[in-house]
Amino acid sequence: MVLEGIYTPLITPFHADGSVDKDSLAELIERLIGAGVHGLISGGSTGENYAQTVEERLDLARFTVERTKGRLPVIVGTGAMRTPDSLALASGAREMGADALLLGTPPYSVPTERENALNALAIDRAADLPIILYNYPGRMGVEMGREFLDRVGRSKNVIGIKESSGDINRLHLLARDYPHIQMSCGMDDQALEFFAWGARSWICAGSNFLPQEHVFLYETCVRQGDFARGRRIMSAMLPLMRVLEQGGKFIQCVKHGTALTGLSTGPMRPPLQGLTKDDKRELEQVIRVLKAAVAAIKEGN
To answer: What pLDDT is attached to residue 301?
Structure first.
């Protein structure tokens, strides 16, 4: 499996009572396919997986696979605190016909690199599907370091890594020492740097509501190799990256941004709460300016 393009980690739309709004999810899937994204991820943290049961996550993934109908690859997230839950998600992904797994470190337990590798390889055996590792030490507590990568990198199924550490030196490490593991940008404000170091994909939550703008940056840098134009696009997008990351309101911002497109996204599940009026106004202004700036670049201005 080649990781190429923009992969959207889907939000989970909810009804007011907290139940899943599958009609809105179906509409989101169709919109993203129509906008030209290259793959979908079900069960990521952007989809509020931490607030869902394993059964709910499997149901959402199955719905996404069935609705997508093979038009795009669907990657299923296996992140969970309990290894048995990750194994159930992995084997379920195989049974429903998913294309790959997104595999992160179990949060909170702080495993050693050996323990983390053995956990990952157990999930690998449960599914025998292509695997995209997910390195996010800021949320998981530990990094997928050399010992981990050396162990899991021997598996034919480990094809890529979503790198979300924010450490630019990790790009150098992965590009130079682990070229057989495809890099995927998982740190939005470093997308340009990832593309410069050979990454050909970007897993980006903002593509839930700005898919065409994200695809435009990818096509400009990766397909056309025009990094001068890419810098202009990235410069226009950076204010959005800052707003998404400020104050721990990432998912709230992504869901509100998606709601601005006319899709019913509903509330977050507890413990998260919605944005304040001031937060909404700031995000809306940033999106307006971004869309205008990127449109002007597309037109050659």
So the answer is: 73
CA 77 to the chain's CA centroid: 9
Give the E-state strand segments of the chain in sequence order: 5-9, 39-42, 74-77, 100-104, 131-135, 158-163, 182-185, 201-203
Architecture in CATH of 5-298: Alpha-Beta Barrel (3.20)
Single-letter residue type at 159: I
Mean pLDDT across the chain, nearest whole number? 97
H helix runs in the chain, sequence order: 22-35, 54-68, 83-96, 113-127, 137-140, 146-152, 168-177, 191-196, 211-218, 227-245, 250-259, 277-298
Residue 75: pLDDT band by 50, 70, 90 thresholds?
A: very high
Q: How far apart are the first and last CA of the chain?
A: 37
Residue 74 sits at φ, ψ, to 5 deg, of -115, 125
What's the whole-number mean pLDDT along residues 152-171? 97
**Cβ–Cβ < 8 Å for 64, 74:** yes
CA dist 198 and 184 (Å) reads 9
For the chain, which residues make up each domain, given as ranges? 5-298
CA–CA separation, 6 and 203 (whole Å):
6
DSSP strands (E only) in 51-173? 74-77, 100-104, 131-135, 158-163
Active site residues: 134, 162
Is the torsion defined by CA of 229, 281, 23, 94 positive or negative?
positive
Residue 139, H or E segment: helix 137-140
Contact 188, 244 (CB under 8 A): yes
Encoded tokens for 260: 């601005």
* Full-model pTM: 0.97
Query: Quick one: DSSP state of residue 247?
Result: G
Query: Residue 198, by phi and psi: left (phi above 0), alpha (psi -120 to 50) or beta?
Result: left
